[in-house]
Automatic annotation (TrEMBL):
<protein>
    <recommendedName>
        <fullName>Homeodomain-like domain-containing protein</fullName>
    </recommendedName>
</protein>
Amino acid sequence: MIEMVQYNYIRFLYFNKHKSQRAIAKEMGIHRVTVKRAIKNPEQKYHMNVERDKPVNGDFEKRIKHLLEYNSNQPKNQKLTKRRIYELICEEGYKGSYSSFTYQARKIEEKLGI
């Protein structure tokens, strides 16, 4: 994927150095259409990664934390699996996916040092 710096460099070569699209493509080792697209769209939008709210996990975060703390104090043969913990909170009304639950559980375990 071409980054913003490369798009700016393509425009610099085309407009300031008056190089052809083919010459730019050959010099940078990219496709002609990519060069054409960079010249055609003078302003590229910056994409900032902003952490979104987690409405599904937010309500159950305390419950997940409580179950993980409880689980860490249990003997090995009595510990609940993550699948079983997921099923328990689903019975309480959790509507998220298993993968989002495991991601949340992993983050909580890292914070607690479990």
